[in-house]
Write a structure and sequence with these properties.
The chain is an alpha/beta fold. The protein has one domain: Glutaredoxin (3-Layer(aba) Sandwich), CATH 3.40.30. Helix content is 41%, strand content 18%. The chain is built from four helices and five strands. The chain has a five-stranded mixed sheet. Strand 2, helix 2 and strand 3 form a beta-alpha-beta unit. The longest helix has 23 residues. The radius of gyration is 14 Å and the shape is globular. 28% of the residues are buried.
């Protein structure tokens, strides 16, 4: 699981300084965890995201953004409560979820929001 800075976020997810409209830059869809070290619910979500990163390796990337260290990124996405999770499919608008979601809920969103698009794309290209 990779921790993103403003620079790596712009390379791998979205260059919000260059593009006004959402344009996903990544090679795999991703889930981004906006968190802080002092946040108790964030500490609950962290090991779940580690498990999901292993389960979905090669299918999605899971990134972390420390909102204390990367305040500009937090502000750019209007992060007001943490944890906030940004689900980024390849070809659609990202979706935000807030709070410490249980693993099954996270898996459901990954399958329905992030990977759904990938399956459709594969079906179209055959």
């Amino acid at each position: 699981m990779e921790h993103l800075t403003k620079e790596t976020f712009q390379e791998k997810v979205f260059n919000y300084e260059k593009n006004k409209e959402w344009k996903f830059e990544g090679e795999l869809p991703c889930l981004i965890d906006f968190y802080a070290d002092w946040c108790q619910p964030c500490k609950i979500v962290a090991p779940i995201l580690e498990e999901l990163a292993k389960e979905y390796e090669g299918k999605i990337n899971i990134y972390k953004v420390d909102t204390e260290d990367q305040q500009e990124l937090g502000a750019a996405f209007g992060i007001r409560s943490i944890p906030s999770l940004l689900f980024c499919p390849m070809d659609e608008q990202p979706q935000m979820a807030q709070g410490a979601l249980p693993k099954e809920s996270l898996k459901q969103v990954i399958e329905e929001v992030i990977l759904k698009n990938k399956k459709e794309k594969v079906a179209v290209s055959n």
